[in-house]
């Protein structure tokens, strides 16, 4: 299996357009949207009702517009829809329970490659996915990777990914001797040391955080050339590259604010907005909260908040990660046509573009046409999140997605390996060896 990088072309048909997109050109929506693509016609079942399970909001606009779009669907089709917003930590186990017992929510916005843990329990969404791809300029390769099962059929459709960029206070970075966040890891470490000296330390989550912990710990390993598995799904995490990554991570951690071992996804948001840290890894939610705060001091902080990509490590190329939500429909639904129609509806421009805008780009898009959404150009600080799904690597890199990749991520093997070293509980070599043993329990040959 061959992976892809941010340099790979978009699969949008016209070579010239793909080339200009890669060079930074963002087309207007109509340039890549094919308005004449006929929508699939699903005969919605009489008396249909749906239950949708999704992650709780991190930005209010996400939830507000999602619920408004759902209400619009009900007004259009007559199908009643109940939306349950579940905490990030509880979403995965509750989804797994529904899959195992064959009842519960009809539609789930699940984490990352969770659908690949139970593909036989999911409805085939190929007809919907192919329609959306044709109409909206094509799916990014990462969306196809997360969406398709081993037989090439779509078992889920990624609706967006939250990018884990660097979030920083520009004035404090300047005081630490840097104009912006360095693009190399050596200077990034020096920046961390200077920030600590100035009492504006950085801090990254080291608890079992679905978003922020996974994002930065995977970047750390990938940036040094490490990976959980190779292209044949052989576990290779116990490697010199991983050991080097852990040694660097330990040095970085020594300059963190105390307490990050227990940080979950809300923790760095709170620390940043409280002025306790000068740099962290997060989606755009910190900036969103500051801009929309009723507290004058926090609102003023928004002017000093900037974003940057993670530095490039010895591997010599970007190794970004992102928290992806993957829309799927369980076979146990009594109303499969209504469910497929609902999923199609929330991906359409009339619903998707306002939802993305209300979230100020918290969820980056999987379809090329949405790169033309004005949200990416109306504020330069949004730009770091504009192409998350175009650039990100997948959890389970460099191998294929399936039960093993989903299970190792759910078991927080990478997070735990990094935290063991940072806390001093294990040496880098011991932690890498333990991660190898844990992963091999899932990747059985």
From TrEMBL:
Subcellular location: Periplasm
Keywords in alphabetical order: Signal, Transport
GO cellular component assignments: periplasmic space
Protein name per its UniProtKB record: ABC transporter substrate-binding protein
Highest taxon listed in the record's lineage: Bacteria
TM ranges: none
Assigned protein family: Belongs to the bacterial solute-binding protein 1 family.
Positions in coiled-coil regions: none
